[in-house]
C-alpha cells in the first residue's frame, strides 16, 4: 500500500479506524531522508496498516498539534487512539517490532486507560 499524505483536512478520518503510522518529516532533514525508504518498505509489506506522512513544512499546524519538536517523529494510532509517539528514525527491525506490538495490543485495556486519562485531563 502506498503512503497517504496526511493534512489537517484528512487527519481525523485517517486516524479513526484500524492501525495508522504517521511519519512527521521535512525535505531538508537528513535522518528523515534515511528513514523514508524504511517507512515505504513497511508500507508495502503491511497492507493492513495505513502509513501516513506529514510534511512539517507544509503542515505546520498539524505538527504543532502533535507537539513535534524533532523530526522524524513517528506516531502510531489504533482504533482512533494514539498508542505510540517517538522522535528519531527507527531501523527496519525496530519499525517491524513496533508494528507487531501495535497489532497485538489488548484494545479493551487501551480504551479503558485512554478513557481514564481523558477524565483526568478534564477533571
From TrEMBL:
InterPro entries in alphabetical order: Thioredoxin (IPR005746), Thioredoxin-like_sf (IPR036249), Thioredoxin_CS (IPR017937), Thioredoxin_domain (IPR013766)
CDD domains named in the record: TRX_family (cd02947)
Assigned keywords, A-Z: Disulfide bond, Electron transport, Redox-active center, Transport
Keyword Transport part of the UniProt annotation: yes
Superkingdom, natural source: Bacteria
The Thioredoxin domain, residue ranges: 1-104
Pfam families registered for this protein in UniProt: Thioredoxin
PANTHER family: GEO12009P1, THIOREDOXIN 2
Similarity remark: Belongs to the thioredoxin family.
Protein name: Thioredoxin
Gene it is expressed from: trxA
